[in-house]
Write a sequence for this structure.
């Protein structure tokens, strides 16, 4: 291979590596919690919502394939409960406002679930 061919191959490899790195970094940060924010995404085949019982606060009903975010301004923690649109409880946990949290509901109405991120 001549010098021009090696140079072209090296440039293509560098651009490919940069593109792959950008894609991986972008994909990895998509599910990162943001401090003082609670994000609920309905990634399953049903709508869902979350409540903060000690605050008398709830998210809006989140349709499948969409998300909603609540922003808080003070540190602390709150219990949060995750529900399906028909009122069935999926689970709950303690939400640390200063750390933030994201929740994705998953599955179907007959086999629901959720995970935190």
């Amino acid at each position: 291979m001549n010098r021009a061919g090696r140079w072209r191959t090296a440039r293509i490899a560098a651009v490919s590596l940069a593109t792959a790195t950008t894609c991986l970094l972008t994909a990895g940060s998509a599910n990162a919690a943001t401090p003082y924010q609670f994000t609920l995404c309905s990634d399953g085949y049903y709508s869902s919502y979350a409540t903060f019982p000690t605050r008398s606060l709830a998210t809006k009903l989140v349709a499948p394939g969409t998300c909603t975010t609540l922003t808080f301004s003070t540190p602390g923690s709150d219990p949060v409960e995750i529900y399906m649109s028909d009122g069935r409880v999926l689970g709950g946990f303690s939400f640390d406002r200063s750390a933030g949290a994201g929740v994705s509901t998953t599955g179907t109405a007959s086999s629901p679930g959720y995970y935190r991120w």
Remarks:
- The two ends are 49 Å apart (CA to CA).
- Confidence is low (pLDDT under 50) at residues 17-29.
- DSSP finds one helix and eight strands in the chain.
